[in-house]
Amino acid sequence: MKFSMKLVVSSVLLFSLSVLAADPKGVLRIPVAGDSGSSLTQINLLLKARGLQVLPAFIELSSDMSAFDIEKLKNSVDARISQVIEHEILETSGAYGQVVDGRKACFTGSNKALVGIYEKMISNFLSEQLFVLAVSTKEPNHFGLKFDESDSGSAGSWINIYRCKD
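Structure (tokenized):
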């Protein structure tokens, strides 16, 4: 009888560990700049001149944020940028792993958490026509997402994000 109790406890513990492993925590850091070429420095000088709060070098998308939270954050950054530079919003190519204003996106925490973050940000930061073809989380310091932006049947392109160094 005691033996079976220990077995049940062990099964519950193993189940709890598998649930924790399936829900990793992570943060994607995307560099901030304007989509028409305005640097973060230029934007922040204009914000400061108007007595407004400056923007950080990166916005952070956490794995525990909802798609609505991510959309709200992006819209608030867009609004702050367009307050000082008409018709300009956040440059989103950093979410594709490209260099923006001398900085690249990076992540902290689990690279597996980025899968969920990217799922939640497709309609906000990326194209609504983005089709995920593959995901790579094998290397702990790298996250890769292979996509086709128009479901064209092409071989696709990779987004490569690396662990933050700072």
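The chain has one domain: 25-163. The longest strand covers residues 142-148.
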